[in-house]
Design goal:
Number of domains: 2
CATH topology of the largest domain: Rossmann fold
Order of helices and strands: HEHEHHEHEHEHEHHEHEHHEHHEH
Strand content: 5-15%
Number of helices: 15
Structural class: alpha/beta
Number of strands: 10
Helix content: 40-55%
Radius of gyration: 19 Å
Strand order of the largest sheet: 1-2-10-7-8-9
Shape: globular
Largest sheet: 6 strands, mixed
CATH class of the largest domain: Alpha Beta
Distance between the termini: 35 Å
């Protein structure tokens, strides 16, 4: 079962009033420095600090009465965990969340504070889906998958509807959309909204450099996996591979993969703080970093990047900014170029 544009539109109606419409931010000074127009969709300002609340609401608002009674089980390294826990509390539903032992402290703390039960697993030695399925067999209810479910992807795709509406209202015609990608729920959900545009923008998924399964999958048309399970600061983007349904959607929309190093991600976090006055967690800044890294490709164009989350421990954030300040010069190593649109406004 796949996710359609109608599914995304239905999700938007269903979750309306439960989530925020997040802003589409722009910095004239950054545009001049990059040589292209960059618009940042600030999902870090969403309920629970990431886009994940959209999919969680779309899922839990469709539970049967029996599922509501039994509760829900979810698997997550943090952002999906917080979202499901928050939505479950709002709807008075019991939630158990399977989280890795190395999940960021802030994400664990928030998940527990929202009232969810946390079940810990070891990312290196255990399969989180197997742990989740075992809990589900014991307790019943519904498994709220973070990406491999059309209902999740449809909820996440409402980000794309907002981007279309916001750019249309401002007379902006995007040349490209860049979306952070792990299991592909957000990317696939947004990809189907390309059909709304008279001139559909090119579509890119962004990943940490050493966890580029989506890039390799899309290049080869074969679903690939990552050999490593840990080793990046982008803790929310370390799933072994995309969901099959999401992969097929992205293939149909001719998506292309981009990557960024951890150092480039930290630099992008610093640039986001300076130019947009927002906090991006590492996983939420990969697309932004990839856009800057590939500025020659986007010269003169209009690019929309999704800043997917901002849940990061304060101490770690300070370290990232310190590292990012040292690395930003290399990421922005380009003479200032006046921005000239390559495509006229609608």
């Amino acid at each position: 079962m796949s996710t359609s544009l109608e599914d995304v539109k239905d999700a938007a109606l269903r979750i309306q009033g439960h989530v925020r419409q997040t802003p589409l931010l722009e910095s004239a000074l950054l545009n001049e420095e990059l040589g292209f127009r960059l618009l940042l969709k600030a999902e870090c300002l969403q309920v629970t600090g990431s886009f994940k609340a959209r999919g969680a609401f779309n899922q839990l608002l469709q539970l049967t009465e029996a599922e509501k009674t039994s509760g829900v089980v979810a698997i997550s390294s943090g952002n999906h965990a917080q979202a499901v826990a928050y939505v479950a509390r709002e709807l008075e539903i019991r939630a158990a969340i399977v989280m890795p032992s190395d999940a960021p402290r802030l994400k664990m703390k928030n998940t527990r504070s929202y009232g969810a039960e946390i079940v810990i697993y070891d990312r290196d030695t255990e399969d989180r889906e197997a742990v989740g399925e075992r809990l589900l067999a014991e307790r019943g209810g519904r498994f709220i998958h973070p990406y491999n479910d059309p209902r999740t992807a449809a909820g996440q795709g409402t980000v794309g509807l907002e981007i279309f509406e916001q750019t249309t209202e401002r007379g902006i015609v995007p040349d490209a959309l860049i979306v952070n990608c792990c299991g592909g729920g957000l990317a696939a959900g947004i990809a189907v909204t390309r059909d709304l545009y008279k001139q559909p923008p090119l579509f890119y998924v962004a990943e940490p450099e050493e966890f580029d399964d989506a890039q390799r999958s899309l290049a080869s048309s074969v679903l690939c996996s990552n050999a490593k399970k840990t080793g990046s600061i982008c803790d929310a983007l370390l799933a072994p591979h995309m969901g099959e349904g999401n992969f097929e959607i992205l293939r149909r929309h001719h998506a292309t993969g981009l990557t960024a190093t951890d150092e480039e991600v930290e630099a992008a976090m610093t640039i986001a703080a300076e130019h947009f006055k927002i906090v991006l967690e590492p996983s939420g800044a990969v697309g932004f970093a990839a856009a800057i890294r590939n500025r020659a490709r986007f010269k003169g164009q209009t690019v929309v990047v999704v800043g997917s989350g901002g849940n990061v421990d304060a101490a770690h954030y300070a370290e990232h900014l310190e590292h990012g300040e040292r690395n930003r010069g290399r990421l922005l190593a380009l003479a200032k170029t006046p921005f000239v649109s390559a495509r006229p406004a609608a």
